[in-house]
């Protein structure tokens, strides 16, 4: 044991507790016929929880962790502390990038050796604790070699390095029994069109993704390949802007049946959408895979990655997830980080525990709204006219025939209220 968290013991469900505990998240509570832990499928993000130093765009490191530094000794200690935290939280899953878990080597071969050593440690600890891997991914954005992208880089050597890195990470995810593999294009975009061949970059991105899908099938990886949309920051424009843009690209590349989406609350907001909008669209398109749960500060114009604390927002998100039938291979990954002034180890536990409670409250509210048919009854009533034989026949008709019907029947429609305020009041009764 590392003793990083002192004598802190695993958290329990105790609504009346004074200290750290779950007050709403009861893993064994049954909601809509399934245990809450199986609905939510919580995961801890390795990068924000253990690799992030506490910086922001205007200031550097504030955290002082004993494993910081580019050494294998530190990487081993970090793994020890991480699994201690997973057990304290009772988190069933975690997620990682390659760069989170190992020091950078002098070349690709050394970096891969470092990575594979830690993957072996992960395998041992997963066997000991029962913690699973929700997904793995490659960091193809932090190092200076990726300043112009990875799959979309104008330098073919960077494309090659990126392909080799993804292969290594997908192999590791497969070895650990990961349930998904995520591709996040942190710098897959452009800063200026003056030096960008957009057509070539989009073609290369599509070919790269096709190679990943081909390799998944070659090695027998049964998990889901996921793409995470993000609109901007750091690039001026990113090719994976939002759900609609990603789906359009998947169709262009012929991969819409092979790839699903990992959708983040903060990224949805940066794209000018709500979280529930992105989830609803992905559900309708059949590509809803997994979520990164966090929030932004609405007074800031950048991705602050804060832990969720808004129950109504979270309830509407899980409402869309439940309407989609719930998660299959996906889950709720806390892509959230402490505030740079939250220095203590206990802050990590408190932040995750509070977020898990918020998600539990949101899930239960969403489930009750569905059970009571509170919103869906109103929605069905609004579209009821489309259930008539005449309306259905019109969809298979033509403009001339429809015009004749309008004239013959004297159709002269009057607008009907959308009842938005009533619906908002209904939601507020549940949250």
Automatic annotation (TrEMBL):
**EC number per UniProt:** 5.3.1.5
Organism domain of life: Bacteria
InterPro entries in the cross-refs = Xyl_isomerase-like_sf, Xylose_isom_bac, Xylose_isomerase
| Cellular component annotations (GO), alphabetically ordered | cytoplasm
GO MF assignments:
magnesium ion binding; xylose isomerase activity
Give the active-site positions.
97, 100
Asked if Hydrolase is a keyword of the record, the answer is no
Spell out the reaction equation it catalyses.
Answer: alpha-D-xylose = alpha-D-xylulofuranose
* Cofactor binding note: Binds 2 magnesium ions per subunit.
Record keywords, A-Z? Carbohydrate metabolism, Cytoplasm, Isomerase, Magnesium, Metal-binding, Xylose metabolism
Q: Which Gene3D superfamilies match?
A: Divalent-metal-dependent TIM barrel enzymes (3.20.20.150)
Q: What class of enzyme is it?
A: isomerase
Q: Specify which residues bind Mg(2+) 2 according to the UniProt entry for this protein.
A: 264, 267, 303, 305
Provide the residue positions that the database annotates as binding Mg(2+) 1. Answer: 228, 264, 292, 335
Q: Tell me which SUPFAM superfamilies the record gives.
A: Xylose isomerase-like (SSF51658)
Cofactor(s) needed by this chain? Mg(2+)
**Where in the cell does this protein reside?**
Cytoplasm
A biological process from GO: D-xylose metabolic process
Family (UniProt) = Belongs to the xylose isomerase family.
Q: Provide the assembly information.
A: Homotetramer.
Q: Which PANTHER family match?
A: PTHR48408, XYLOSE ISOMERASE
HAMAP family reported for this sequence: Xylose_isom_A
Record-given protein name:
Xylose isomerase
Q: Which gene encodes it?
A: xylA
């Amino acid at each position: 044991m590392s003793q990083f968290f002192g004598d802190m013991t695993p958290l329990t469900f105790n609504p009346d507790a004074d200290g750290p505990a779950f007050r709403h998240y009861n893993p064994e509570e049954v909601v809509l016929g399934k245990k809450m832990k199986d609905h939510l499928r919580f995961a801890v993000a390795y990068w924000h929880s253990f690799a992030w130093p506490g910086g922001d765009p205007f200031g550097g490191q504030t955290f002082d962790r004993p494993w910081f530094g580019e050494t294998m000794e530190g990487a081993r200690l970090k793994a020890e502390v991480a699994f201690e935290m997973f057990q304290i939280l009772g988190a069933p899953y975690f997620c990682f990038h390659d760069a989170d878990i190992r020091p950078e080597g002098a070349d690709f071969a050394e970096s891969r050796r470092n990575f594979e050593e830690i993957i072996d440690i992960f395998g041992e600890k997963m066997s000991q604790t029962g913690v699973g891997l929700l997904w793995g991914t490659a960091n193809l954005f932090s190092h200076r070699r990726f300043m112009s992208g990875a799959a979309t880089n104008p330098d073919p050597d960077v494309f090659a390095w990126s392909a080799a890195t993804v292969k290594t990470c997908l192999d590791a995810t497969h070895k650990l029994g990961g349930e998904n593999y995520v591709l996040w294009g942190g710098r897959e975009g452009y800063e200026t069109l003056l030096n960008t061949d957009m057509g070539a970059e989009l073609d290369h991105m599509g070919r790269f993704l096709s190679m990943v899908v081909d390799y998944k099938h070659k090695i027998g990886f049964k998990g889901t390949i996921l793409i995470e949309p993000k609109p901007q920051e750091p690039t001026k424009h990113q090719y994976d802007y939002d759900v609609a843009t990603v789906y359009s690209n998947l169709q262009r590349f012929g991969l819409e049946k092979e790839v699903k989406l990992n959708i983040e609350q903060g990224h949805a907001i940066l794209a000018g959408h709500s979280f529930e909008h992105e989830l609803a669209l992905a559900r309708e398109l059949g590509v809803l895979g997994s979520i990164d749960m966090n929030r932004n500060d609405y007074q800031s114009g950048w991705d602050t990655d804060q832990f969720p604390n808004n129950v109504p927002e979270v309830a509407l998100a899980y409402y869309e997830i439940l309407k989609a039938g719930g998660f299959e291979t996906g889950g709720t990954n806390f892509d959230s980080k402490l505030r740079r002034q939250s220095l203590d180890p206990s802050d990590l536990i408190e932040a995750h525990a509070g977020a898990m409670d918020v998600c539990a409250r949101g899930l239960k509210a969403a489930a009750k709204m569905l059970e009571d048919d509170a919103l869906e009854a109103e929605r069905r009533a609004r579209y009821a006219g489309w259930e008539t034989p005449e309306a259905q026949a019109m969809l298979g008709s033509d403009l001339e025939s429809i015009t004749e019907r309008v004239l013959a029947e004297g159709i002269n429609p009057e607008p009907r209220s959308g009842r938005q305020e009533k619906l908002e009041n209904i939601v507020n009764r549940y949250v």
